Amino acid sequence: MERLNVGLDDRSYQILITPEGFEGFAEELCRIGFPRQIALVTNVTVGPLYGEIIAPLLQRHGFSVRMVTIEDGEIYKNSETLDSIYTQLIETGCDRHSGLIALGGGVVGDMAGYAAATYLRGIPFVQVPTTVLAQVDSSVGGKTAINHPLGKNLIGAFYQPKSVFINIASLDTLDRRNVLAGMAEVVKYGVMFDRDFFCWLENNVTSLLELDRSKLAHAIRRSCEIKADVVARDEKESSVRAVLNYGHTFGHAVEQLSGYGKVLHGEAVAIGMVVAARISHFLGECSLEDVERISRLLRSFGLCVDPPEFSLEEYLIAMSRDKKVQSGVLKFILNVGIGDNKIVSIDEPGKILSAVLSRGLPCQICSE
Question: Whole-prediction pTM value?
């Protein structure tokens, strides 16, 4: 088992990465003094797979476990589902001395984390991510949120977990589409922070697609290392952490306009990354070869990189609600070559988007 530290003073915690199984999880909860009364929040897909393994494991170590189950999918990441979590917590008698475990992908982690942040004004929680995307990105850093019909993740809170427990073997039961979608976030770390890691990804596509355990461990570990370092420097996204949203400004617009759940988050981010790379090239921050390498790597992971056919006006309206808009000015995250990044303010995004979107073709995934 490997351990990485997220250094946030009195809110510091560790990311535990194990190649297989949940052995050591109960011991970790004991080590950090986690409450003995636990609400295990999961969904209808993950619960039968891993909830029925974790619950008895924890019970054997003296924990009392209550299952809280929600529906599966981005379409359920909303206030109604959040209310259902609150209701189940209340009905099962969870109090301020209870703890919450988020078992699932990014939707479960975000929603359970937000529930933990707000239930009785805050109870401790732990992340147990079971998707590629959640293991390399959303489970680390304390961003919790729900969607609103007018924008993604507009309602939420920064609320750090007490621990993150990553069981790589849980990816064996993940459907292929979600495996591929999660790889977009892995590629993001290489593009924005680590050129050598990007090159490593180019050379290990086949092994990663075959879920080679050692290659996955390296990709997950390096992604978590990068994110932990960024979060430690800027917990609440006042500066450098914003660059982790590379591809997300346009990607969130794709998700919202397509209808939450039709295009997976990672699929939308892949599209957004290539749009951002095209903007970067348009502004002279990277070469056309860099754009082509980014696009080629994403495509090699089976990801569509061309935007769906919504109008420029629709995209601009959706992007105007982005959390990085300040005083009406959109801040865009750009790659500088491969391995570096910058944040730019774009006063006339319509002009630039019109130029870069005209180079793309309709995405088959999004047009179906």
Answer: 0.92
